[in-house]
């Protein structure tokens, strides 16, 4: 008789903690699979491997029609598009990382001030922050990219990197602002009152009492936004930045190998997002341990 399957409901996501090596989680499966495909797929498509496979096939089934791949290998026209794409696109990773890291830093700062502005007692600051969040969240990121690069670019002469960072920061700053607002308001008002009773100023209470607790609460949601920003950085290809996506499109315009090229591009994005999610998981784990002390 087969054993019944037990489903265990966990408190958090299945990003493995350090030292918990026995958990073969979805994160590990995805990471190992993505890296494995990045290595294995170009290797099995080399001329030597393909020649061996097709020659072996003809030996096992001699009556089958000779494969055109053998003919292309023989006359030298065979191309390992997976490997060629993998060699062509990596320099776009530098631009992708540059835009993403700068945008993460700027969007977090903008989001913090937007979140504080929405709970501010100053009517003007509150209205400006609220309008900013509502307006920016209602406009697609790609429209903001076009507007900043092409429309404002005629007046401000914005370069590609500056326009991309500005659009991503402004767009995601609005979403992160909502996350900060919700996180701050989730902290009990008694925390602030207790800090003031102990002689702290409001600024000190916010810095040392409220903000650390807020970061611990919002980190999962903030991590999701940062991962989404990394993926949405592929849209900056419309402003002529030679990022990962642009390099992939440039290679397909030469080779017309759309399937092979964008398979490699997708796997590279997957590996980057998985590493970023692991980084967020490590930060969350450390904050939780620090909170228990």
Question: Which key phrases capture this entry?
Answer:
0% strand; 293 residues; mainly alpha
Task: Please render the helix and strand layout as text.
Layout: H1 26-44, H2 47-60, H3 68-75, H4 81-88, H5 91-118, H6 123-137, H7 141-151, H8 153-156, H9 160-186, H10 189-197, H11 202-232, H12 244-255, H13 258-292
Helix pairs in contact: 1-4, 1-13, 4-13, 5-6, 5-9, 5-12, 6-9, 7-9, 9-11, 10-11, 11-13, 12-13
Short summary of the structure?
The protein has 293 residues and is an all-alpha fold. It has 13 helices and no strands.
- The N- and C-terminal alpha carbons lie at a distance of 47 Å
Count the E strands.
0
Rg, alpha carbons: 25 Å
List the helices and strands in order: HHHHHHHHHHHHH
Unreliable segments of 5+ consecutive residues? 7-16
Biggest sheet architecture? none
Mean pLDDT across every amino acid position = 85
Share of helix, binned: over 70%
Strand-residue proportion: under 5%
Number of helices, counting only DSSP H or I runs of 4 residues or more: 13
> Rough shape?
elongated
Structural class: mainly alpha
